[in-house]
Amino acid sequence: MKASFDAGAASARTGQGTARIPVDLGDVRRRARSAFLGLALGDALGAPVEFMTADEIRAQHGLLREMVGGGWLRLRPGQVTDDTEMSLCLARAIDAASGFDLRTVADRFAEWLRGGPVDVGNTVRRGIRRYLHEGTLAGPPADGDAGNGAAMRMVPVALATLGNGPLLAQLAVQQARVTHHHLLSDTASVHVGLLLHLAVTGHSLSRLRAASDALAAVHPGFRIEGYRGLATGYVVDTLRTVLHHFHRTRGFEECLVAVVNQGGDADTTGAIAGALAGAYYGPEELPARWLRKLAPALRAEIERLADRMVDLSPLARGEGVL
Ligand code: MN
Ligand code: MN
């Protein structure tokens, strides 16, 4: 199925009209780039301590706040992993199709898997293999699909659907179910997208907090209060880790350092926190010493694709849904 990001379908369903939303598009573009770069920075910062406990990190690194490389994947300092690479697959697919075409997305995932990526989650591998063998764009619902592998790659869909929340929800779930079919994965993917919409369009911390509190009212597992340090790849633990630290810190670097030093699925919590904090705090807060560690070609492609996602969005085209 193909969606060109126009608001027609959603507005016909909801009865809402389309209208120009008064936002500063230049500011949106800056925050969009910062979100995508923040994702890569959090991935690269956290990957060397993925699957370590907070105590193990403290013993080996003290407080980890530099791009050290190494870890179980033996990474170069600044090297990104599947979290960033799958996000790039989505962004390249949206770029190539000038819109969201799910088969193009699945083909990019398949091409990436065949290329022998540095790491790949079990649920992701199984979903892509199913697509390759059966051609199906969604797996059946499965209890084991509540990992964070779909929520971690939400940046491109969030940017390309700016200005249209119903479209975001629809496409978030479609991209998620290529590999993960579980209510909690769907819910977390949509919520990460919603927070990115709010942050990229300049909303306040209290507005973001209210959105997450509203989610917790429906799904109490996601509540921010009472966090006890579980940072696993279970998408509920992942999102709680991100939101707990995002709301108790006051800066991009402080937030990411707090998140990755929690350990567990540290590259993925780092990636999601980096996207959210990058969008919220903007590019001035991205540490230059971290950015220098990203491969120049990667950084350039991320910036180009972030711009392209925004250009394709209903918001940039003056077709946002009020
Ligand atoms: Mn990873
Ligand atoms: Mn991970």
Description of the molecule:
It is a single chain. By secondary structure, the chain is mainly α. The chain has one domain (7-312): Orthogonal Bundle (ADP-ribosylglycohydrolase fold). It has 15 helices and two strands. It has helices at 8-14, 25-46, 54-61, 82-97, 102-114, 122-134, 155-160, 165-177, 183-200, 205-218, 235-248, 252-260, 266-281, 288-291, 296-312, and strands spanning 2-3, 100-101. It has a two-stranded antiparallel sheet with strand order 1-2. Helix 4 packs across helix 15 (296-312) and helix 5 (102-114) packs across helix 6. Residues 7-19 have low confidence and may be disordered. Bound molecules: manganese (II) ion (2 copies). Residues 47, 81-83, 119, 267-268 line the site of one manganese (II) ion. The site of one manganese (II) ion (MN) has 7 residues, from helix 4 and helix 13.
Globally, the shape reads globular
Query: How many DSSP helices?
Result: 15
- CATH homologous superfamily grouping: ADP-ribosylation/Crystallin J1
Integer-rounded radius of gyration: 18 Å
Q: Within the largest sheet, what's the order of strands? A: 1-2
Counted beta strands: 2
- Termini distance? 25 Å
Associated small molecules: manganese (II) ion
| CATH level 1 class label | Mainly Alpha
Largest sheet: 2 strands, antiparallel
Domain count, please report it. 1
- In CATH, the topology is named ADP-ribosylglycohydrolase fold
* Secondary-structure element pattern, one letter each: EHHHHEHHHHHHHHHHH
Give the integer mean of the pLDDT values: 94
Helix content, binned percent: 55-70%
* Beta-strand content estimate: under 5%
User: What structural category characterises the helix and strand content?
Assistant: mainly alpha
User: What is the CATH-assigned architecture?
Assistant: Orthogonal Bundle
Q: Which regions contain 5 or more consecutive residues with pLDDT less than 50?
A: 7-19
